[in-house]
Design brief:
- With about 475 residues, the chain is α+β, with helices and mostly antiparallel strands.
- The chain is about 40% helix and about 20% strand.
- It contains 14 helices and 17 strands.
- Strands 2, 3, 4, 6, 7, 8, 15, 16 and 17 form a 9-stranded mixed β-sheet that branches.
- Helix 3 packs across helix 14 and helix 5 packs across helix 14.
Length: about 475
């Protein structure tokens, strides 16, 4: 009860501290303060007792997380939810119902980004936005992204239960396809919102590995009516700020016993696709000196990725070979083709780009030395890092401090939709601990207490930013 009282008292005083004018000569200061308290609470002369029962509804929030996890193409405890599949569509319907139930006006764009709007007293001012994604890679967990969507809706509910009335409008966004699982494009929805002309054009020609076009998949889910994805682009003045709540996806907060991470920067990701072509043959009949093994070329390049990353000497440089496929894929057949997909990222863009150059040099030298053909070396994306805005950082820190929660500044080595929203608005991220740092696996877990702490910090941050002039 003490924690609940503390949060509601902070929310109760927020309107005054965020919107007061410094005029010591004003004889009506007391009357103005009372008026502002009334405007904030929705009640004349509110008593503190009115706010004592306001808290995060952790039971219902966890129930929603559990229910959303059932919309999955893999059995529990894993979650698989791929863009525009049946379970993705059902999950979207679930989210829209929750948004509508919170009294928000809901709309969708041509690729299925979902927006839920709470109009403020100054509706023409750029809104404050928050949100994340709900798609899930195969056999992953139920908290990645989901906490930032369901938690955002609960943050709005919390503010409404407290009687808060926003000045700038508040908006919750559920981004389409943050994961690159279906069409190999990470942060598809937020990239478009950020104004990616090349992506808007390429989507009309994009197909998946089963030759299903993006347009056909989108239309089957009820989107892409006019096939013009440039209408997804955000106006430059759409938002005054964007804040994303997310599990850390790493072990730092849990290991250090800290409740809240204040993200100062998001590492720059890059994705690379490489194809080698060699000569296949019988595993027993072709002698080793005569082989041109495309599979071994891919394997050697995978080790080269590790080598080049470690050579930087930086803990912030990482590289991963998440996909390595060979053809024809028989135990007694020498691979005639291989396909490898590489993810490398760094907080330092120049250092990351140097790693990419070295990986390319290795691919060329491996192909020559092994007598295989480098069929493709394609950089799918090569995004710059994003820095959180200082005034958003201060708002998040202030919220955590007001709530008495331990917090620390940190960087995100995983990419998020915030990486692209930073191109359209001042950005910030709030991290909460997750069990052993697990993510993208069924064991992914965040406790109801940690989620509630994140929701409270998010709610208070949104409230502060709503009154930011």
């Amino acid at each position: 009860m003490a924690a609940r009282f503390h949060l509601t008292l902070v929310l109760f005083t927020l309107f005054i501290t965020c919107n007061s004018t410094q005029n010591n000569n004003n004889n009506n200061v007391e009357d103005e303060t009372i008026k502002r308290m009334q405007d904030f609470s929705g009640y004349p002369n509110p008593s503190l007792q009115h706010f004592q029962s306001i808290s995060v509804d952790s039971f219902n929030l966890q129930k929603q997380i559990d229910q959303l996890s059932t919309f999955s193409d893999s059995p529990p405890p894993s979650v698989t939810r791929i863009l525009y599949t049946h379970n993705d569509v059902v999950a979207r319907r679930f989210i829209k119902n929750l948004m509508g139930g919170a009294g928000l006006s809901v709309r969708e764009d041509a690729v299925g980004n979902i927006f839920a709007h709470w109009e403020g007293s100054e509706p023409d001012a750029p809104a404050v936005s928050t949100g994340s994604h709900i798609d899930a890679i195969p056999y992953s967990g139920k908290y990645d992204g989901v906490v930032g969507v369901l938690g955002a809706i609960e943050a709005i509910n919390l503010l409404k239960r407290s009687g808060f009335k926003p000045k700038r409008s508040l908006e919750v966004i559920m981004f389409t396809s943050e994961e690159p699982t279906h069409y190999g494009i990470n942060c598809l929805g937020s990239r478009l919102l950020a104004g990616s002309v090349s992506l808007a054009k390429s989507l009309t020609q994009t197909v998946d590995n089963t030759n299903i076009s993006f347009l056909d998949a989108a239309k089957s889910a009820g989107y892409a009516d006019n096939e013009d994805f440039s209408n997804v682009f955000l106006d430059e003045k759409s938002y005054s700020a964007f804040v994303e709540l997310h599990i850390e996806q790493g072990p730092i907060l849990e290991n250090e016993g800290i409740s809240i991470g204040i993200v100062t920067a998001i590492a720059a990701p890059a994705s690379i696709k490489v194809d080698f072509g060699g000569n296949g043959g019988h595993a027993g009949a072709v002698l080793m000196p005569q082989r041109n093994d495309a599979g071994l070329a891919a394997a050697e390049l995978a080790l080269a990725v590790e080598k080049h990353v470690l050579e930087t000497g930086s803990i912030d440089t990482v590289g991963t070979v998440g996909i390595l496929e060979v053809h024809p894929g028989a135990i007694n057949s020498i691979p005639s083709k291989s396909h490898i997909e590489i993810d490398t990222r760094d907080i330092d863009e120049k250092r990351r780009n140097t790693v990419i150059e070295k990986i390319h040099e290795s691919a060329v030298s491996i192909s020559k030395r092994r007598g295989v053909e480098l069929l493709e070396f394609k950089i799918v994306n090569q995004d710059p890092p994003a820095l959180s805005d200082e005034f958003v950082i201060k708002a998040m820190e202030s919220a955590a401090r007001d709530l008495g929660l331990t917090h620390k500044k940190m960087i995100s080595r995983a990419y998020h939709d915030s990486l692209f929203m930073a191109r359209k608005a001042p950005m910030g991220m709030i991290f909460i601990p997750c069990y052993k740092g697990y993510s993208h696996k069924p064991e992914e877990y965040a406790s109801p207490e940690d989620i509630a702490n994140g929701v409270k910090v998010l709610a208070l941050t949104l409230a502060k930013l709503s009154f930011n002039s």
